Amino acid sequence: MASELLHRRGRQELDTRPRQGETVVPGGTGGKSLEAQEHLAEGRSRGGQTRREQLGTEGYQEMGHRGGQTRREQMGSEGYQEMGRKGGLSTIDKSGGERAAEEGVEIDESKYKTSS
User: Fold this and answer.
1) Cα–Cα distance measured from residue 21 to residue 29, given in angstroms and rounded to the nearest whole number
2) CA distance 45 to 82
3) Which SS3 state, helix, strand or coil, does residue 24 take?
4) Which positions ≥6 away from 25 have C-beta within 8 Å?
C-alpha cells in the first residue's frame, strides 16, 4: 500500500511538468500530460516498428541513411559536422548545448542554419 501511494504521488508530480511544456517521457514530445506523452511515445514506437516491417531492416536503415544525407545537403557538411559534435556531447541528464557550455566547448550554431 505504501509503495502504491509513492507511485501515485510520483506520477502526480511528473504530470505537472508536461503542463509547463516539459517532455518527461522519451518520445512523448508535444503531450500536455503524463498520460498523453506515454500514449504518443507508444504510438511513435509502434509506427517505427510497422515501417521497419514494411521495408525490411535493410530498407529501413537505408531510409535513415538517406534522411541523414538530405539533412547534410540542407545544412552543408560543415554545419552537419558541428551539429554532430553538439549531439555527441549530450547525456541523459543534459543536452549537448548545456554540456558544451559547462565544458567550454565552442559550438558555432551559425554553421548549421539551413540553406533551403
Assistant:
1) 9
2) 28
3) coil
4) 31, 34, 37, 38, 40, 41
pLDDT digits (tens, 9 = 90+) for 33-75: 999 999 999 999 999 999 999 999 999 999 999 998 998 898 8
Question: 9, exposed or middle or buried, with CB in 10 Å at 0-12, 13-18, 19+?
Answer: exposed
Amino acid at 104: G
The Cα 39–Cα 66 span in angstroms is 28
Residues 6+ apart with CB under 8 A from 74: 114, 115, 116
Q: Rounded to an integer, what distance in angstroms lies between the CA atom of residue 53 and that of residue 73?
A: 28
Look up cell 514530445; give the residue. Answer: 29
Cell numbers placing 52:
521497419
Instruction: Report d(CA 71, CA 59) in Å as an integer.
Output: 18
Alpha carbon distance 35, 19 (integer Å) = 11
For residue 84, the SS3 value is helix
Phi, psi for 95 (deg, rounded to 5): -75, 165
Does the reported pTM lie above 0.90?
no
